[in-house]
Proline dehydrogenase
Amino acid sequence: MALLRRLVVNAPRNVRVLSTPSPASRDELDLTFNSPKDAFKSKKTSELVRAYFVYQICSVNWLVENNDMLMKRLRQVVGQRFFEAIMKATFYGQFVAGEDQNKIRPTIERLRSFGVKSILDYSVEEDLSQEEAEKREVSASISACGDMQEEGQLKQYHVEQRFADRRYKVTSARTYFYLNEASCEKNMEAFLRSIDAVAGITKSTGLMAIKLTALGRPQLLLQLSEVIMRARNYMQQIAGGTGNVLTHHKTIEDFQRYFGDHSTKPEVQQFMKKITSDKEGVLHLFPWDRIVHLFPWSNILDEDMNLSESFRVPDPKTGQMRRLISQISTKEEEMFRNMLRRLNHIIQVANEADVRVMIDAEQTYFQPAISRICLEMMRRYNKDKFLVFNTYQTYLKNTYNEIVTDLEQAHRQNFFWGAKLVRGAYIEQERARAAAMGYEDPTCENVDATTASFHKCLKEILSRVKSGKTGLGIMVASHNEDTVRYAIQLMKEHNIKPEDKVVCFGQLLGMCDHITFPLGQAGYSVYKYVPYGPVVEVLPYLSRRANENRGFLKKIKKEKKLLLKEIVRRVVSGQMFYKPIGNYTPV
């Protein structure tokens, strides 16, 4: 040890020691992402050794497949205190920033000093058995009024016992299971504490992530998703075709002709009175729907709103009003208002604290409702700045169309459109569920198709930046080097500079440092997704990280190679005790 210290002091003059850059300096970005020095200048050597050890374990299939059982056994054998010490020296230390707001501060500050910002996530998860998870999900996904089974594509918006445990084949996303309204209030409080942490630590540069399934009963999201799809089908009938209904310019006379003699009925006339047009002259049948506005969504938080009565349209054959939403009880109506009240409160508090909120994407049978609610919150809160961000999963075939539709809505209703673009977390589960339930697989056919979808969406979004149509902000949340390079290429083509605050990048803490830090040190806006929480309570999260790393063996192989190169370089050059000090300023 003493010898190593002398080597640090007496390092040869021709060996370049990792230097601290001047405050205004920016590193040159190596788009091959092959520089171990650039990747790991924010790390102590002990942290490099830990990362190499953890990745090595993640390469052993048997250990990863049995990681949950092994961690529980280890905890029983060595006791709680020693178990936590072992975890902090290995997996927890690699993938989790700390136990609470105070203990994560050093990690956040060091990230920031090397040009990297933070997305905070309180990653505590319930460790439920499959049986308990299925029981909860089925119970919380069926209305007290019963569950009417559908045929065709609409059947996906109903619970299926075989897939009630939403963790099935999912390694990279946290899952909330509804217990009761009190548990949703508790989740809301956890999100509010995350806002305090972001505001107090990140100096207004951080974000926080939330999941809507944490805030309410899943049955309500299923029913609302089904309503949205029924509404789209209804509007396709009126528009007389397929595709984006926003491109169909209809007049009041068109609707009167569609309803024929029924247009004279009082209830149909009342329905027609609510039709409005936007600034482009496109008619909306009430201010809300993502394609055309069918229902009073802007008043969804009103205490006197009744979902069963609101989601009604004229039947073109009889002229009688019919519900698009399946039966819902008075208590469930109240639960729906509670869910939106919680979300609204979180966003209001975040707005006051100048903290941006990312609403995570979830399974396709929830996503129409989640995206609709998110777009409404954008419309309310993104008038003057980016506050609410939606998430789009590009492994879904329809994501490009969804993005184009949402961009059009943002333009026509004049709000800032913020999005996180990801490949997605649920592809294996989605494919298995579609095959088992007999509806069309919503996912891209392979990895190449998913990448093509990601790049197509990214190209569409960035092509609109200089048009001035609407304020756009996009996070490229990807561990894929080719996708990051493609995003940078598009930025150059469209003359989008990092300081324009249009494009940012994101990766998980403890993964892909060889991408994140070179980007931040070169002046690009980049984030680490930073989980935190007590050791024992984040074990499900750690288990998923181990499984996810196993699924990216090729990428791990490169990171392991870079880690080993940097460890050897430091040993040879006498920098074993290098202390990272950064003076980079994040965009």
Q: What stands out?
A: The first helix runs from residue 2 to 9.
